[in-house]
Design brief:
The protein is α+β, with helices and mostly antiparallel strands. It has 2 domains: 220 residues, P-loop containing nucleotide triphosphate hydrolases (Rossmann fold); 147 residues, RNA polymerase II/Efflux pump adaptor protein, barrel-sandwich hybrid domain (OB fold (Dihydrolipoamide Acetyltransferase, E2P), Beta Barrel), CATH 2.40.50.100. The protein has 10 helices and 20 strands. A hairpin with a 2-residue loop joins β9 and β10. The longest helix is centred in the middle third of the chain and has 18 residues. It is globular and about 75 Å long.
Length: 377
Amino acid sequence: MAFLELSNISKYFGSVAAVDQISLSINQGEFLTLLGPSGCGKTTILRMIAGFETPSTGTILLDEEDITTRQASKRPMGMVFQSYALFPHMTAEQNIAFGMEIKRLPKEHITRRCAELLELVGLTEMGRRFPHQLSGGQQQRIALARALAVEPKVLLLDEPLSALDAKVRVSLRNEIRRIQQQLKMTAIYVTHDQEEALAISDRIAVMAKGKIEQLDRPEEIYSNPHTIFAATFVGNSNQFKAVLTSPQEGRCRTHNYTLYVPSQATLQAEEQVLVIIRPEEVSLRHENNNYDETLVEGPQNLLPGRIELRTFLGPFTRFHIRSDEGTTLIADVPSQQARGYDIGQAVSIVFPASACQVLRLDAHSVELEQLVEIEKV
């Protein structure tokens, strides 16, 4: 049985379902991330686990014990908030000690534990500083140490890095992951940052409108999405709305082109589909360059287009190419290969059939696709 089990959890605010019949099993020592746009229910789930909200329906079991209605103060949870929530009149060391003092633990234990945690988060020399004397990243490290001080069974993190600048976010997310693995602690992490979720999670629950769209390992979420929302929300993607003309042979029809895709055993001919290609799977060829398809295994897609934008991003260069049918595609090309391509140049857009992900297009998926577009604006 899972260490933390959510069974048919719902939370209603009036007539609105913030969380809608979610079941989730989390293993001991696992790092699970709840990923989704604003309002999808991820923070509400975290607050129900913490005890700050009571589920409208369903049960929460921790180590086979029902904690659904238990008060937050009596749950073995540690929580790290987005806003740090440190006591400004206390030093870093006093903030870490606060929970242990509430539990009336021996002073010797508190002193030793504070020193251990300051070392764990890399702030051994900062214990006597007040929050205003610390940077944002240092304050969040102290908040993490305070959450760990009471030795919780589950660590809950509610968008803990969103108030920090980009470089500090990357550094601190790696530290959180290192500490979680070192302590072998069960952790549930809430974020809307896809890169963050992919980088540090054992599994990711992609959420939309109070439901889990896909629960899987990061590699599977990115490479094998099960729904259009998961495919379009996580990572950048090129998209073609098409009609599947030959499922077995792997052919789709757009307005002007036939696209070659993998064979589709579960879809029917004439179904409307969305074809998704990741930018790193797209390459460019000079328009007058003879392209030998025999050099590449499997069928290839070649579309004419013109470069609209060229952005140097260090190891790769991102091209926005306007295809002849009016679709703008993104190609992430290794920068050494990107030399010789510039704005206004006519090119051939090339990607293999094997790079295409094909998903059924229905009214529900279109609605969620629009939600992604709104979130990414």
